[in-house]
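During the reporting period the student researcher (J.K.) took over the structure-prediction task from the postdoctoral fellow and processed the backlog of single-chain submissions. One of the processed entries is reproduced below for the supervisory committee.
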Amino acid sequence: MIHPLKFLTVAVLLAFADFSAVAQNLQLSTGVALPGKAVTQQSADFVVALVNSEPITNTEVQREAQRVLQQLAQQRRPLPDTRTLVAEMLESLINKKLQLQLARDSGIRVEDAAVEQAELSIAAQNQFDLAELRKRVQGDGMSVSQFHNQLREQILLQRLREREVAGRVRVSEQEIDQYMQAQQSSPDLSKLQLHLAQIVVPVPESPSPEQLATLQATAQKILLRVRAGEDAAVLLREFAGVIDRASAGSLGLRTADRYPALFVEATRALAAGDVAELVRSPAGFHVLKVLQTINPALPSTVTIQSHARHILLRTSAQLSAVDARAKLEGFKKRVQTGQAEFAQLAKEHSQDGSAAQGGDLGWASPGMFVPEFESVMNSLAAGELSEPLLSRFGVHLIQLLERRQVKVSLTEQREAVRAIVQENKLEEAYRNWEQTQRGRAFVEMREAPL
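J.K. obtained the following C-alpha cells:
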C-alpha cells in the first residue's frame, strides 16, 4: 500500500506546478507602482485588445505588470523597461485568454475539490492554516473568491496543456542514450563540478630519458596502489623522497573550467572513487582520484536516503491546526524528557497508515514526500525531532532516525534522464503549440496600454 505522503506522481506535480509562484506572490506587499506611472487603481480603463471578441482591458495589463514588479522588488532584482514589460504582459494575457477559451470550449472542467486541494497545498508550503492564508490574500487586495478563481484558471490551463501537449510528448530509449552521451562527452565546463585529489611525482626541468622513465615508473606504481585502495598517508611516507607533499591531497570542489584542461580531460567521464590514467604535465606526473563529480545536466549516481517516522494529526472542525500543533508540541516534550516513547505515541495518536508501525515511514529517496514535509525532514540530524509542521495532509511531528548513501541503479538514472529530456521537449512543444493557437485566433489590437 502506498503511503499517503508518497502520492506525488508526475500528474500531481504538474497539477501543482504553478502554485509555488502563487504562494510567493502572496507574501508580497501591495503598493509597488510602475515607474513613472500612477498605480493601477488610478489608471484610466479601456479595452486594449479583443481576443475572439473577448476584451482585455488596460487595468488587467497594469495589474499583471505590477504583480511582476512586486515579485522582482521582493527578490531585489533589477526592474525591466516599463514599455517592454507592459507589452510582454499584454501578450501573456492574450495567450492566457485564448487558452482559457479553448479549455472551456473543449469541455474541460475543474471540480471544487481540486481548488480546495490547491489552496491547502499553498497554505502548507507557507506554513499557514487556511484562515491565515485567506487573511493574507485579502490583505493583498484580493477576495477569497477571486483567489479561488485564479487557482481554478491555473488548474484549467494546466489540464489543457497536459491534454494538448504533455500527452503527446514521448521520449525514446535512443534519445536517452544520445542525451547521456552528449553530456558525458561535451559537458558545460562552467557548470560541471569536480572534486579531485592528487599525488604528484615532480619531474626536473630537463630530465634525462633514464630519469624520466624512472619517475614515470614510480608514478605508475603509486597509481596502481591508489587504485587498490591503499591509504594516501602510507604512500606519502613510503615515497617521501619522490612525491611533492605540498601539492598532495584534495584540490577542492570547483567548476571544471577552474581546473587545468589536462585534469578535466582525464577525469570528466569518471565516477566518484575512480582513479584516472597517469597525467603528464610540465610539473610532473599526476595521480588523480575523483572524490566527487556533479553534472547538473545528468542525474547523480548516488543519492541520500532518509529513514524517518512521524505522528500525523489531521485537522478538522473538531481539531484546528493551532490545536494540533499544541498537542504535538506536548508529545515532543514528553519524548525529549523521557516520559514517552515516540513509537508508542504514534501508535496511539497518529492518523495515517504508518501508525501501526509506530509512525515508521521506511527508507525514502528524495522526492518521495511532499515538499513541505521533506524540506523539514532534510534539515534534521539523526535522532532529532522537528517542530510541528503543517502539510496538505495535516500537522506532523517528525523524527529522523538515520540517513544513508546508496547507489542509484542504471534504470533509475535512465528514468531521471527521461524526465530531463521530456521536460526539454515539453518546453519546445508547448511554445510551438502556443504559437499555433495564437496564429489561429482572431486578435484585434485596440489602444496601447498606458
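The committee noted the following: The chain has three domains: 4-169+430-445, 188-294, 302-407.
J.K. will present the remaining backlog at the next meeting.
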